[in-house]
Amino acid sequence: MKIKLIVDGGAMKPGPAVAQQLGPMGVNLGKVIEDVNKETQGFRGMKVPVEIDVNPKTKNYKIEVFSPTVAELIKKEMGIEKASGEAGKSYAGNIAFETILGIAKTKQPGLLAKDLRAAVKLVVGTCVSMGVLIDSKEAKEIERDIDAGKYDKEIKEEKTEPSEEKKKELDEFWKDLTVKQEMNKKAAEAAKVAEEAKKTEEAASGKAEGEEKKEEEPKKEEPKKKEGKKK
Fold first, then answer.
1. Are 78 and 92 in contact (CB under 8 A)?
2. Which end of the chain is more exposed for a tag (fewer CB within 10 A), N or C?
3. Burial 143-161 (b: 16+ CB within 10 A, else e)
4. CATH of the domain at 54
5. Digit-coded pLDDT (tens) for 54-76
6. DSSP state of 111
7. Pair 103, 123: CB distance under 8 Å
8. Phi-psi domain of 164 (left: phi exceeds 0; alpha: psi -120 through 50; beta: other)
9. Which pTM does this prediction carry?
10. d(Cα 127, Cα 83) in Å, to the nearest integer?
């Protein structure tokens, strides 16, 4: 029986999901986890798809490790834990086109891509959704550049390692952008606090005015009851 799991590379731990799927198989759970961690050691820091083929009768099993997702490989290359929560507004990192090309080559066999160029575009598309810059430009712009043939030479030569000079330029650009993003974030937070304070003040002011108005309103006198005629 084949069991599919997504585990932390080199750091799989016992948990409800693992126990629920492997427990009924009657295998030594601790041994399975130890073996999976050995097999995925090279993917430490990434989420890795694994498939464990268990023979319920003999309790023997075979572990097959699959390549991490494109998003995980991008995060690994950039040394980040998560993508941008606001793609298009804020950015998670700045990666070289050559690195994108390397990821595309790694994932090409499992991607629905007819050639390396198509695989590169799929990886670039992932950068769009993750809020990752490529060559200090928005990933959508890189997509247009690929369509225009601006990266044909790099793709043809399959150059997967950027020069040290380029790495330095990308790092410097990212450092400057990080400072700007942090300043914008603080400014947005300050504006939000000010807006909330203003709303609270207006609400309190409105309530006070309402109470004052209520106090100023003259009390209406009740109409006098007419006395009945004496017979």
1. yes
2. C
3. bebbeeeebeebbeeeebe
4. 3.30.1550.10
5. 988 898 999 999 888 899 999 98
6. S
7. yes
8. alpha
9. 0.70
10. 9
